[in-house]
Amino acid sequence: MILSDFALIASNTARTKAYIQIMAGRGLFPSACIVYAEDMDVLYRESRDYTGSMDMGDYFNRDIPLLTLMDHFSMKYIVVKDKDINSDSMIECIRGLPQTYFIYSGYGGAILKSTLFQLGKNFLHVHAGILPEYRGSTTAYYSILKEGCLGATAIFLNEKIDEGRMICRKRFALPEETVDIDYIYEPYIRAQVLLMALEYYVKHGRFDVQGQSDENAETYYIIHPVLKHLALNYVREGFHEDCVVHTESRDSRKL
């Protein structure tokens, strides 16, 4: 199914590759994509030289080049030679597309500026943490330490960090110790929550969003290496029983 009102803003990251593969697994595709990078020649070369497997594996296949994935699934894409989401070239490209919803899979650390929010578009982002309890950076590791699990929340971005209107959210059990959290499991759970949001839209023809409360809200900053080490040890030691895994959306309960 082609989602006529959705476009994908696609950085060359593991998260984008997870999004594409998980969406494709359910037969859902955006009607347009913007691939943006500082050096597009690198992406073209990676795709041209790739001879590996197209199998997704247990989670997704991070090794498949971005453009190879898009060509494999016959996805239409526009190329922008710029890594800055707020650049004039990106703004003009987004402005020129008719889609209302833009699935945002950008480069880490980038913050959308006010100019983008003046385009009349909705930027759908999946945050790697349960909101509003885990705002900010590297929240997966804080969630492991505090709750023994991970989570993700689909939101519409606004000018405040991780404070946009919520679409859906879900907690996930810890992965097996051999799974890389940063480059495999976190992108995978974000992709699963994105899929939840899109499937709700396909079923109902709309999103049912809820504003965030500041009650229980907490903002985190890049985790100290010692704390990250402790969190990874928690995963390695097999503490997978502590988290009550459940999905939260407007279908099941009030966010």
Polypeptide structure, described:
With 255 residues, the chain is of the alpha/beta class. The protein has two domains: 1-120, 3-Layer(aba) Sandwich (Rossmann fold), CATH 3.40.50; 126-255, Formyl transferase, N-terminal domain (Rossmann fold). It has eight helices and ten strands. The strands form two sheets. The protein has an eight-stranded mixed beta sheet with strand order 3-2-1-4-5-7-8-10, sandwiched between helices. Strands 6-9 form a two-stranded parallel ribbon. The radius of gyration is 18 Å and the shape is globular.
Provide the β-strand percentage band: 15-25%
Oligomeric description of these chains: single chain
Q: Reading side by side through the largest sheet, how are the strands ordered?
A: 3-2-1-4-5-7-8-10
Q: Give the name of the CATH superfamily of the largest domain.
A: Formyl transferase, N-terminal domain
* Count of individual domains: 2
Structural category is alpha/beta
Question: What's the main sheet like?
Answer: 8 strands, mixed
Give the low-pLDDT segments. Answer: 250-255
Into which percent range does the helicity of residues fall?
25-40%
Radius of gyration using CA atoms only: 18 Å
Shape: globular
Ends distance: 29 Å
Number of strands: 10
Query: The CATH topology of the largest domain, please?
Result: Rossmann fold
List the total number of helices: 8
CATH architecture label name of the largest domain: 3-Layer(aba) Sandwich
Query: Could you spell the SSE succession in H and E letters?
Result: EHEHHEHEHEEHEEHEHE
Q: In CATH, what is the class of the largest domain?
A: Alpha Beta
